[in-house]
């Protein structure tokens, strides 16, 4: 599986996104997602950035200010 699978699950499954923030290894294991070492490193770096994933029905990914068209 790839990071694209993780991104899709984050965007469609709020409970997966919440568990991923709390315990990424457990969330991936429960979902049956196996990442390579490089993919795990990239995911950990992403999760370490504050405010990247929001739960409770909010947008799950935040955009960079320059990427938002006003």
Number of helices: 4
The chain-level mean pLDDT equals 79
The rounded Rg comes to 12 Å
Described by strand count, sense and barrel closure, the largest sheet is: none
User: Approximately what portion of the residues adopt beta-strand conformation?
Assistant: under 5%
**Structural class, from secondary structure content?**
mainly alpha
Span from first to last CA? 35 Å
Residue stretches low in confidence (pLDDT < 50, at least 5 long) are: 55-60
Order of helices and strands: HHHH
Instruction: Specify the overall morphology.
Output: globular
Structural commentary:
- This protein has helices spanning 3-12, 14-22, 24-31, 37-47.
- 54% of the residues lie in helices and 0% in strands.
- It is globular and about 35 Å long.
- The chain has 70 residues and is an all-alpha fold.
- The protein contains 4 helices and no strands.
């Amino acid at each position: 599986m790839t990071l694209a699978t993780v991104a899709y699950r984050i965007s469609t499954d709020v409970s997966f996104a919440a568990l991923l923030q709390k315990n990424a290894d457990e969330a991936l294991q429960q979902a049956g997602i196996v990442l390579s070492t490089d993919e795990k490193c990239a995911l950990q770096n992403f999760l370490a950035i504050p405010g990247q994933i929001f739960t409770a029905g909010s947008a799950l990914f935040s955009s960079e200010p320059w990427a938002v068209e006003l």
